[in-house]
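Predict the assembly for these two chains.
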Amino acid sequence: MTDNDLHADGGRASSSATRIGVDVGGTFTDVALTVDDRLVTAKVPTTDDQHVGVLEGISKACDRAGIEPAAIDEFAHAMTVSVNALLERGGAKTALVTTEGFRDVLEIGRQNRPELYDLEAEKPDPLVPRQRRFEVDERTTPEGVERAVDPDEVRALAADLRESEAEAVAVCLLHSYADPENERLVAETLREELDVPVSASHEVLAEFREFERTSTTAVDAYVRPAIDNYVGRLVEESEDAGIPAPRIMQANGGITDPETVREHAVTTTLSGPAAGVVGAAATVDDADVEGLVTFDMGGTSSDVSLVRDGRAERTTDAEIDGLPIRTPMVDVNTVGAGGGSIAWVDSGGALRVGPRSSGAEPGPACYGRGGTEPTVTDANVVLGYIGSETALGGEMTLDVETAHDALERLADEAGLESALEAARGVYRVANATMTRTIRSVTVERGHDPREFAVVAFGGAGPMHAAALADSLEVDRVVVPRPGGVLSAFGLLAADESYDAVRTVGVGLDCEARSASDGRTGSEATRETADSSELEDVYDDLVENVLADASDPDAARVERAADCRYAGQSFELTVPVDETFDADAVAERFHAAHERAYGYAMDESLEVVNLRATATIPGTEPTVRHKGAGDAHLGSRNAHFPGAGVESRKTTVYDRDRLASGAAISGPAILEQAESTTVVPPNWGGEILEDGTLVMRRAADETEVSER
Amino acid sequence: MTTNSTTDPTDADGIDPVTLEVLRNQLESVAEEMGQTLIRGAYSPNIKERRDCSTALFDAEGRMIAQAEHIPVHLGAMPAAVDAVREYDPKPGDVFVLNDPFTGGTHLPDVTMVSTIAPKTEGAPESDGTEIVGYAVSRAHHADVGGMTPGSMPAGAQEIYQEGLRLPPTRLVEGGERREDVQSLILANVRNPTERRADLRAQLAANERAEERLSALFDEHGRETVLSGFDAVIDYSRERIADEIAALPDGTYEASDVLEGDGVTDEDIEISVSVTVDGETIGVDFSGTAGQLEGNLNAPIAVAKSAVYFVVRCITDPEIPPNHGCYEPVSVHAPEGTLLNPDPPAAVVGGNVETSQRVTDVVFTALAGAAPERVPAQGQGTMNNLTIGARDGSFTYYETIGGGFGARADRDGMDGVQVGMTNTLNTPIESLETEYPLRVGRYALRDGSGGRGRFRGGLGLERTVTVEQDATVSLLTERRRHAPKGVAGGENGAVGENLIDGDAVPAKTTVDVAAGTTVTVRTPGGGGHGDSDERDGKALEADRSAGKRTDSDVETGETDR
């Protein structure tokens, strides 16, 4: 929790301000509004022109809160404009300029095929077709410019680009991360000559590996006009409505002003899922666990991320639809099982769940909109987790019979006794596939899932979380109160954050590390780091990140270095102090290597990239949850894993009415407008002051024989 | 074998459709976690970045239950390793290490570790912890295992003794006690002992993970359910693959093709296959293939098996989980003393990389007789191995280069990708120019190299590398005179070309060059599919405007075998 007073002068809203977060998802636009210490949420359908739904959502939430939109002090926003442009290949007609001989790098990629055994597989189409990929005669090496660009050639190129009717241009020359001189000249000349945006790779991502840098730069150019257009329009409409200009979520989990994202469009991809993880990190105390596994189960898929030390874990190795994007992003892993995933029996006689989904239309059979295939949601209906009376916030009635029929047909096909058996099976199989992903995400990063807590959100997440925790041997599950709109809530809690990187590629001159023992590769050709040169690079990077910050004086600047053992191609990022101390960096690297991979080695080190991050801490909204009246809604029969075939009488509560401090013992079901939580018989729960539900496994009830 | 009945909820193993799917996920998850543990802990870039490694779980009879493989050449090689270890009377607490191509290995850099699994579980019989219920296996390509050149992939080897340290199944851990003497012996024979120690430790950690996880599964489901689950997942894969094989028309399908010399001889070397589809089984017989070679293109039988399994997986549903059940209906025979089943002390290091590619080509070609719509035209059929090293040993650069994928029955072949038994990444130009005294002048799609057809073969690549100091250049390539074939009237792809300062050199070349010399590798294009007159006008125009097809396409090599 940050100290609000620190930022009172920095122009940041205090927690008592009226703040709104709006997250546009594929189906719904979610809104979280805080007024004083009240939290109001709303959901409206996403519209094709996303700003229409955004403004509708804002007015719906304001109506519920009983305030005028003009009373809003701060507006934070995440949207899917850029990711949609990529997925639908609907971005700008983009041109690419490369070093002569290398225009195909973007198309060749890393020369691997996408699937090992699938003869029908296709590589993703390059964002820039060959006709619009142009070359310039120049050469830069790791040491610097070897052959300068001819300005006349660039002006001639500008004419070709104009003729190609390009709407955006990406420039990526070899080794421009080491010396951007040629690339800068090309980009500046093109900016003078052309009326379209020009993205230069050393500005987007000054990092070595030409394909990944080219791809990232091409994505930036490709989505830039769409982002510029959308953000520009939303700023205007907000102004008309008397709302402050939106601050925009970036995929790195940090928030920034609209002008900055218009210049750095690539940072807006996948910002919605990032906001959800930030929301989980903000609402859940992880002091006594190794970290958090966030589990967001939606209609078609589930997202899994890790939070450590209160921060969402980030990756610089992300891909969208096969296109690498190397700017830092919150690391979101998707598994193809959601509430709408369809269950079926395959030719080998196994009961499978997904990857096919019933989608928003017709939706699961129980929606009664024409769906007949059994989905995970239908199984949850048959198991009694979702009831006919109060389901889905009362905005939709459930057709229990249709769900039952769908599961009955599945039972026949699978040779199972009843619809109930089929439903139990679907629940178990869906959980098994999600458990597999969670195990993989944690183990791959060197963690033991047992030392984590699970944070469940999304419409279906809290219905499955305790069962997942059982098989992961996790003892605690946390369900934030705004679980159905956690991304929108996360927008309110996000820090402002900016990243910059530059590849330096030098040996680390530190003590007590012996020379290598006759390895292949030639670290002999590497110069060792001159710390004053590294300081110069850091100065540039810091200047760069502060230039975007809304209040440079309030920003916390962190410096880091990506290091590796000489001859390896895997880097680890370690923090760097205010002065570059090679021995300290080496020490941290060895410790980080030990932590990540289980050992450290007596080998020479290389500093590959330098990084700087500027962060202005966000103000976490203070929400006090009161609860009201009788939370007891009644009871119904529900079925739990391993608890025998007979159903258990299960108390149903209105989650929002439960007062803080309320204790719940399983079996119980907590219903809420956007989601339903299942507390199995061997679990208990407690409502915290802000309305968060913490569930713990009871030590004594160990009747779980199968999961 | 039981056929699935829609009225019987459980199969012969007493496992219902739900438990089957849950256990399948959990057992595959064990293999995956082993793989992640291995990749995290390894040092060799081959393992860590290129993922040239595999992990698997076997039952007590040596049948594979689940595998996490990252490259196809390990598909058939893991069972051979377990079979070899089982000849050595394994006991609980034993961990074997091996790489001998003639006892369970494929080529020496691939080091395999096989651990016995004998978990102790709560309330289990007294025999618990003493009974082997399965094996954990990890296989990884180590950066060096000794021999005549750094990297242990010597181009000129004619005996296996030159290729590195040879390990028949050897106990690295005996009854739970680490044998430091064995480890010292291994480390004394390799160039980077510190790195190898890390790689071996990573493999050991991966295998240990299997026992830990399996024992948790015993606790969760009960020992008997899990052991029945082993049978159930094998039956499951067998059933699915058998259905697909049964759908192929019975018959015997033949094909042959050649390797273009082995560096000792420049003569063509024949590989012949006869594939018999009979009901739910496939028999693959390599009789008629050339005898074993003086050079290093010999391939142990496990390589041929891997190639056959690869093809079978490709033409059936690739989603079928790879385990013993997939391979049981497929038998592979190659006469002893031949290219595909050599006797010691044959050199074998090239068998994995080039011979395996040609084996996939002939098996694909034969099976095209049974499933013409599923088999693409031939792809580039080579890995284009390029090695450039300083004569003083100060650097060694090794790389394989992608090329054209064969055209499919309903779409063009992919341009510039790895085909067949490999799928490793390229070395970024910015990385190699920083690490080595080399300069790349061009890396591009090779226009016009895809075989014409209703659907076009994928384009090959061109990579041009200039050496900045005196060096030895070694090329181990194929499809330089026999082009990748088109099918159904499609034309052949372009043959590859190797040039040194503009002059053509043979498919297998090792030559000393002076600073400033430029090596150009042009990789083969894929064959076309169908008559080129039937090519869609838009596709033709798209190719023309992208420059992927030229009006005077390069020579596509001979048109007949």
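Chain B touches chain A through 101 residues (CB under 8 Å). Chain B has eleven helices and 20 strands.
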